[in-house]
Specification:
five-stranded parallel beta sheet, 23 strands, alpha+beta, 19% helix
C-alpha cells in the first residue's frame, strides 16, 4: 500500500484556517463511548483527568478521510514522575500502520526526555519538552498531528517536532489518549482540556513551519525511513545513498552539490546488526525509481570480529545486502562505498589525530571481503578508505567520525563516480 502513496509537495503555503470549520469530533460536545474508556476517567465539563493509566479514545468514525485530517489535543502535566510517559495520541494497531505521538519524562539525563512520533512502527523523535529544563506543571501544551495528502507532521504549540513528513498507512482504529505503547511504563498524570478532530476541509497551517530553501521530509515504511527532497521536477535523476553515520556527515555536502546538477538525493541510515532484513532493503530501495544507489554498512559492522563472525558469514551478509538493493532497484547503477578508517583518539586536547585505531584491522577485513562481494556482483567500488588514511588530521577524534574536510572529500568522490552514470536532464 505504501508504494502507491504519491509523494506530494512537502511544504504548504501560508494561509488562514477557516474559523467556521466545525470539528468532526470535539471533547467539548461529544460523549466518550463507554467501550472507548479504560481505567477511571475523571471528567468535569470539558476537562478530563487521566491518572494511573486511565485512557479514552476518539471513535474511528471521526477519521473518514485517512489521508486528510488534523488532530489537536491540549494537555497539562499534573505531576512529573521519574521515569514515565504520556501517550498523547495512538491511532495504531499491532500491524505496521497508523501513528503514535507521546512524550516521556526522566530526571537524568535530560537528553533522554523525548517527544516521540511513531509512524507505521518506524520510530522518530526529537528533544523532549523543556530541553535541559523540566517541562512545566499545569501549563497547557497543544499537540497537533496534521495529515495532508497522506503525509503526517507532528507539532507542539504549532512548532514542528521535527522537520519531517511521513507517509501514513491508514487503519480503522480509534485514536487513544493515555494508552502507552509500552504498558510497563509509568503514566504521567495529565488534564486534557481540549480534543478536536478535523476533516479535509480544515487546512492546518503553522506560522512556525520551517522556511527551508531546499525542503526535505521523510517517507516511512515497514522497518525503514527515507529522508527525501521536495520533488518539484519529476524528470530529474534520483540517487539513493544508504549507510552508517558517516553518510549523515557527508549528506549536507552531497545533497547540496547534487542539486547543482539537477539531481535529487535520497538518504537512508540503516543498522544491519546481523542477518540482512532483505524484504526491508528491497522495499526501501524500490520506493522510488532510483537512477543510482550508493551503499555502505561498515561502521555498523565493527562487532563482526573473527571470533564472532567468519569471513564466509560476512561475505554472505554483504552479498545479501547488495542483492537486495539490486532486486529493489534493478534499473539503478549501484556503487559500494568502502568503510572509512577507524582512528585513534586525539593524543592531547587541541592536537590532531595521528594514528589508526585499534579496530582498524576489522575495517580492513570488512573492506577486503566487501571488495570480493562487489567484484562478484559487478558493483563498482568507491575507495575513500585509502585517501583518508593519509588525512588522519581530518578525524574528529572519537575514533569513528570526521570533520568537514573529510565529509566534503567523500561527497565529491561519490559525486564524481555517479554523475557519469546518470541520465542527462
Amino acid at each position: 500500500m505504501l508504494r502507491r502513496l504519491i509523494v506530494m509537495g512537502l511544504i504548504f503555503s501560508a494561509g488562514l484556517v477557516r474559523s467556521d470549520v466545525k470539528p468532526l469530533w470535539d471533547l467539548a460536545k461529544d460523549k466518550i463511548p463507554a467501550a472507548l474508556q479504560s481505567g477511571k476517567i475523571e471528567r468535569q465539563g470539558n476537562l478530563v483527568t487521566l491518572k494511573n493509566g486511565a485512557a479514552f479514545a476518539v471513535p474511528a468514525t471521526a477519521f473518514p478521510d485517512q489521508k486528510n485530517f488534523t488532530v489537536e489535543v491540549t494537555a497539562s502535566l499534573l505531576k512529573l514522575i521519574d521515569p514515565s510517559e504520556f501517550t498523547v495520541m495512538k491511532k495504531q494497531d499491532k500491524d505496521d500502520n497508523g501513528f503514535t505521538y507521546a512524550i516521556n519524562f526522566t530526571a537524568k539525563p535530560w537528553w533522554a526526555r523525548k517527544i516521540t512520533s511513531v509512524v507505521n512502527n518506524v520510530f522518530m523523535y526529537s528533544t523532549g519538552i523543556g530541553g535541559q529544563q523540566y517541562p512545566k506543571i499545569n501549563r497547557p501544551y497543544k499537540f497537533t498531528v496534521a495529515v495532508r495528502n497522506g503525509l503526517a507532521t507532528f507539532y507542539v504549540d504549532d512548532k514542528p517536532v521535527k522537520k519531517c513528513y511521513m507517509a501514513l498507512i491508514p487503519n480503522n482504529e480509534p485514536m487513544w489518549i493515555g494508552r502507552n505503547l509500552n504498558k510497563s511504563h509509568k503514566c504521567l498524570p495529565v488534564k486534557i482540556s481540549s480534543v478536536k478532530v478535523y476533516g479535509s476541509d480544515y487546512k492546518y497551517v503553522s506560522a512556525k513551519e520551517p522556511k527551508a530553501k531546499y525542503p526535505r521530509g521523510v517517507v516511512a515504511g515497514n522497518g525503514w525511513a527515507l529522508d527525501i527532497p521536495k520533488i518539484d521536477h519529476q524528470d530529474w535523476p534520483k540517487v539513493l545513498f544508504y549507510g552508517d553515520s558517516i553518510s549523515v556527515g557527508y549528506s549536507r555536502f552531497f545533497i547540496r552539490d547534487l542539486l547543482k546538477h539537477n539531481v535529487y538525493a535520497f538518504h537512508c541510515t540503516h543498522f544491519v546488526k546481523g542477518e540482512v532484513p532483505k524484504p526491508v532493503i528491497e522495499e526501501m530501495s524500490g520506493r522510488f525509481k532510483f537512477d543510482a544507489v550508493v551503499f555502505n554498512n561498515g561502521l555498523h559492522s565493527l562487532h563482526w570480529t573473527p571470533d564472532k563472525v567468519s569471513d564466509q558469514v560476512i561475505y554472505n551478509r554483504m552479498r545479501d545486502l547488495a542483492q537486495s538493493i539490486k532486486k529493489g532497484a534493478p534499473q539503478a547503477k549501484i556503487f559500494y562505498l568502502l568503510t572509512t578508517p577507524h582512528t585513534a583518539k586525539r593524543p592531547a586536547p587541541g592536537q590532531p589525530v595521528n594514528a589508526l585505531g585499534d579496530k582498524n584491522d576489522i575495517v580492513k577485513r570488512l573492506n577486503r571481503i566487501s571488495i570480493q562481494v562487489m567484484k562478484a556482483e559487478n558493483i563498482p567500488v568507491i575507495d575513500v578508505y585509502t585517501p583518508l588514511t593519509k588525512h588522519l588530521d581530518w578525524a574528529r577524534g572519537d575514533g569513528y567520525h570526521w570533520n568537514a574536510p573529510a565529509y566534503q572529500f567523500i561527497a565529491k568522490e561519490i559525486e564524481k563516480n555517479i554523475l557519469k552514470s546518470l541520465p542527462k536532464k
